[in-house]
Amino acid sequence: MSDTFSYQEAFSRNLGWVTPAEQSVLRNKRIAIAGMGGVGGIHLLTLARLGVGAFHVADFDQFDLANFNRQAGAAMSTLGQPKVDVLAAMARDINPKLALTRFPNGVHEDNLAAFLDGVDLYVDGLDFFAFAARQATFAACARLRVPAVTAAPLGMGTAVLTFLPGRMTFEDYFCWGQRSDTEKALRFLVGLAPAGLHRAYLMDPSSINLAQRRGPSTIMACQLCAGAAATEALKILLGRGPVLAAPHGWQFDAYRNRLVRTWRPGGNRHPLQRLAMLMAKRGLPGGRP
């Protein structure tokens, strides 16, 4: 079947929103995505359909039933299979000529150099609670001057932060340092979405417990994340349009029909952020936001 594949024809309907020259640029770009679960898998498929020609993808996990509500590769036919293998096959089914390198042990200090080698952009798809991997990956992006985008699935919407070379870093914004995982979770959630649009319609607050590393999710949020992150990726890779870099961010909530842009100079050091974290700690058991 790959003999009948034509890149130009497969992605011809992108033209108009991008020029033929820009489509050629996307074909020659390489994106790294860590995590092939809820958002990461949909990131890969969305960017593959955009015509991006090369990827580094990482994940150590396998699909199980708890993934069915939101993960693109989760199905009865893939139960127990490695996520990175399933999503790589799905992406190659879209573009058989993809240059795709798998990292089946996930990302860690020993393989980050290879994972980010030659990439033009990093898109974050790690599990919310993958603190060590996320902290190391974003630190490496800052060191290697690799742009990085994270789009968080919150409620039925997405919160987006972009970190550009020479600008505010992930660590500068979230202020994780050597804090406990529970504290990192709180700082990550409050920092991702200062507007907190999703909190108004959470029906059961007990479903979120940062200390126990659990929380609810929706497929709508994951799909919105992929659209938002891919659009940021397009602008960064093509050098087109404004990119709101941290400490600027934005949150869109489809349930509430609201879009809010946020600006937090100093990130979680900002007085409003410090107040939000204090209220979360005091108001809800277990550090629930």
From TrEMBL:
Coiled coil: none
Transmembrane annotation, as ranges: none
Pfam family, one: ThiF
GO BP annotations, alphabetical order: cyclic threonylcarbamoyladenosine biosynthetic process
Domain THIF-type NAD/FAD binding fold positions: 12-271
Keyword GTP-binding included in the entry's annotation: no
UniProt-listed CDD domains: E1_enzyme_family
GO MF term set: nucleotidyltransferase activity; tRNA threonylcarbamoyladenosine dehydratase; ubiquitin-like modifier activating enzyme activity
SUPFAM superfamilies: Activating enzymes of the ubiquitin-like proteins
Highest taxon above the source species: Bacteria
Annotated NCBIfam families: PRK08223.1
Protein name in UniProt: ThiF family adenylyltransferase
Organism of origin: Rugamonas fusca
